Amino acid sequence: MSQTKKSETELDLQDRVEQNPDKIRSMFDRISPTYDALNRTLTLGIDRHWRKVAVKALGNLEGAHCLDICCGTGDMTFEVARQSKNTFAEIQALDFSAEMLTFADVKLKKKSQDQADISERIKFQQGDAEELPFENDRFDVAMVAFGIRNVNNIPKALSEAARVLKPGGRFAILEFSMPSSALIGALYRVYFRQILPRIGALFSGDAEAYRYLNESAEAFPARDEFAKVITGSGFSAVEVLPMTFGLVTVYLATV
Predict the structure, then answer these.
(1) 0.70 cut: is pTM over it?
(2) Residues of the domain holding 229
């Protein structure tokens, strides 16, 4: 892919997903009390499986220095702890929503009652995916689940992830995608456009938030297009792993 073509792809991506960061942050603050319960309800609990697959794709996490970007309430962080049997070296987890991090800290305190040392190696903090507060070559692995589409400048956030990963470091991106099947795609659009916003509004009281979640998922680039953006942002290779009829995709990138 030529440099010109890459730049055009990146510009097109920015045109499609550009966000108002303050507005998006406020939205996630508002829906944080019902976020976990609605995730389980709206996905029929399959989101747990998706995260398990994404973390497993990162490989052996024993002794790993890990970064969870756009961590929300910490589900990916705690999946790393579970799969590594708490043998990870550290997990730095950041999100731009202070309220989401409040719930992540509550979950960490509960888990620390049984695993006292876990709280010493997991740190939740507020931060910007486009300006990660870490030195170069800090982490062995990084991850982001259902958060990259909420970033204002996606290529910049990807480049930041590449910067803080060690050479050979792995980055798992879990995100919604359009199914390949026309029938499944039609059902997907009905669910995301008509059913999901209504359920979200009923339980959270915030119809606007769940309309946004639908619109941002539908506007996200196709798998091949996004893979090109990843490899154009500092990663040498990317593996594309669709799941559940292509409803979601794991992108496993290597620096």
Answers:
(1) yes
(2) 3-177+222-254
